[in-house]
Write a structure and sequence with these properties.
MetI-like fold, globular, mainly alpha, 80% helix, 11 helices
Length: 291
């Protein structure tokens, strides 16, 4: 009976993974299909990749999405790190409850509500102040940053809350000024969380559709919006080629990160073994009787 339950559990898990990954595999396979009909296989061809390289609309949308995502990731890390530092070190201050609610609001509010709110704000600002003159890269950058800051702030706050406070206290006791403590001790310790927040913000910005749809202009179309507009006209095999390239880039990034983490763990384990061996040899030398 135990073996039956184990096999049933393994079979169910295999079905779940097939349900998740078979569509991705089909995108990769049909990107090499010669037929114009995306779901009908004829024979192997690379013509959709060649056509993609000459598609100026998709290439411009890719460049816009990448520029927007990089700008959003950098601004979100700067603002989110400051917010996370405040939340972790100054738990009680005037207006702290409102401040925490504002930080968490983008996480719980539907993105449609946030997009409509920002759209109405920018329209009102344009009517009263003359800025922004239409919607474009700046308005999308503000919207994406507002969407991603909360994720970075929570990540940094969690890292700072788990950090050993005695390190910063010892540095202050030795006379280090606050900025020196932050840049020499706090910043290196929270660097992994900053990197994680940067990557998360980059991914969210690249994948965003709703906020971009509300805040984009006619000359600033992101890749998700361009693909969505083409999907409405029918399934184009060129979309499979785009999806395959994105999957390849993500896979290479995951493999490179896993390889780096594995090498770092091996290096740390090697240094630990060397330290243990050196300590043991020094102990034997100290315990050996003099001749």
């Amino acid at each position: 009976m135990k073996h039956l339950r184990r096999h049933l559990g393994s079979g169910f898990l295999a079905l779940v993974f097939l349900f998740f990954y078979l569509p991705i595999l089909s995108v990769v396979v049909y990107s090499f299909n010669e037929s114009v009909i995306a779901s009908q296989w004829t024979h192997f061809s690379l013509k959709w990749y060649a056509k993609l390289l000459g598609d100026s609309e998709i290439l411009d949308a890719c460049r816009t999405s990448l520029e927007l995502a990089l700008a959003t990731a950098c601004s979100s890390v700067v603002i989110g790190a400051w917010i996370g530092y405040v939340l972790a070190n100054y738990r009680r201050f005037w207006g702290s409850t409102l401040f925490v609610a504002m930080v968490n609001a983008p996480l719980v509010l539907p993105e449609v509500i946030s997009g409509i709110s920002l759209l109405l704000l920018f329209v009102s600002l344009e009517q009263t102040l003359g800025w922004p003159q239409g919607r474009g890269m700046a308005t999308m950058w503000i919207g994406h940053t507002m969407l991603c800051v909360s994720y970075v702030a929570i990540t940094v706050q969690a890292r700072l809350s788990a950090m050993d406070k005695s390190l910063t206290e010892a540095a202050r006791d030795l006379g280090a000024p606050p900025l020196r403590v932050f840049f020499d001790i706090t910043l290196p310790l929270i660097a992994p969380s900053l990197l994680a927040g940067w990557v998360l913000s980059l991914t969210i910005s690249l994948d965003d559709v709703i906020m971009s749809a509300f805040l984009s202009g006619p000359e600033t179309t992101t890749l998700p919006l361009a693909l969505l507009s083409r999907m409405r006209l029918g399934l184009n095999p060129e979309i499979n080629a785009i999806g395959t390239l994105i999957i390849a880039v993500v896979t290479l990034g995951v493999v490179a990160n896993s390889y780096y983490l594995m090498k770092r763990e091996q290096r740390q384990a090697r240094h630990l073994r060397m330290a243990v061996l050196n300590t043991s040899s020094e102990g034997r030398v100290a315990q050996s009787p003099p001749t």
